[in-house]
Structure formats: structure tokens, C-alpha cells
Amino acid sequence: MALALLASAAADKLYVASLCQQFGLALTDKASGWHLAWQDDALVLRNTDLPKQGDILVDFASGAASYRRLHGGGKNEAIAKACGLNKKRDLSILDATAGLGRDAFVLASLGAQVVMVERNPLVAALLFDGLRRAAASTELNWLNQRMQLLHSSALEALQHQPAVDVVYLDPMFPAREKTALVKKEMRAFHDVVGTDADADVLLAPAMQLASKRVVVKRPGYAGFLAAQPPTMSVTGKNNRFDVYINAAI
What are the entry keywords (predicted)? Predict the structure, then answer.
């Protein structure tokens, strides 16, 4: 797949050049399939062959993100309990499979210092642009101090990053057969990112890096990562969070 960024007269040329250099994108006047483009000063992911798909972007100031931050349950959310943020705010967390950064945003809004790791260049560029726009929001002036982006594979990050309190893993999981078409973002991720076939190998280095715990987000129907039973599990509305506390794998 070509990593294309569609040219736009409205985009800042220096910023576009930095995106291309940082994430290995090629600027083009015509793109096909999945590609990055500009819409209302935001970087978006779209597909020329799926006009009904709609644009995908990272917007930490969106209504949904703000609602979850303000009314989503805070420290009582399953993810907060699993990571230990219900007891301590200022935890350092490495989100090794960041995706669109929604879980990282929730963790940061609860006081954690979060490093988002994303290996896919298209998705990493979306995260980078989401952080750029959030920096201009008065309501989110804290965000860039609590959230950082690392464009890297999860395994490389786990092997080379400084120790953190918590490692958070949310590997892509194959969708169930015979289910309805997954929502647009999941379809895009399956097309653009694929599944994390190497997810099982992440658990051991994650345990070595995390000083307190590793948290693995899983669909309710999925088995344990690397077939290793967790210390405990915290069940959310649509997923469960397997927690591995201070135990070598």
C-alpha cells in the first residue's frame, strides 16, 4: 500500500513536509484506496473506493471524547481500575498499541503520563496531527504535557524505552465470523493495519518493562494473551482488561 498524503493548497507546506519526512509519506496530487488527506485543517484517513465510509481522524476535543472525559465514570471506569488509576493519579504508562489514542486520552485525563506507541505510519500521522490540534485548545492545554507519541513497533519500544509503572496493550484482534460489518474505524484498521499476529510475543518484554503491572485489553470472547492467565481481570461493558501484576512470564 502506498503511504500517500494528498496535496492541499490549504495545508501548511512546512508542516506537510515534516509529516512526510517523519512518517515516510509521499505527497501526491491524486490518491487511490486508503490515504491521508486534509479536511478543515485536520489530517484525515479516507478511501477513494469507499465514499460512504467517511473520514477518520484523531480529535481529542470531539464531543464523544469530551463526554467520556467529563462523564464517562472517571476512576470508576474499568480501564482506570485495571491500570491502578483509581488509587494513584501520576502513573507512567506506555500504551504500546495506541491506535487512535482514545484509551491513552482517557488515561491521561485521569492524571497519567502516557507514551503512545504506534507503528503504522498512517495512524501515527493521525495521532501526531491530533496532538497538534489539541495543543491549540484551551480546554486541553494539559494534554501535550501528559501525552507523547512514539512512532515505533511495540516490540522495539518495549525493548528500548525507560521503565514505566504500567504497560497497556490493546492488540488488534480478528473480528468474529458471521458478525455484522464492523463499524467504519474497525474496518479501516483491519484494512490498513491488519491484525497484530505478533501480539503474544509482547507480553514477556512488557512484564520486564512495567514496574507495577501490564494491562491487556481483550474482547470478551478472546483467550488470554500468550495463553498466560492474568493475576486478575476487570470486566468492562464490551471488553475485559487482563491484569498481570509483578510476575515474570
Answer: Cytoplasm, Methyltransferase, rRNA processing, S-adenosyl-L-methionine, Transferase
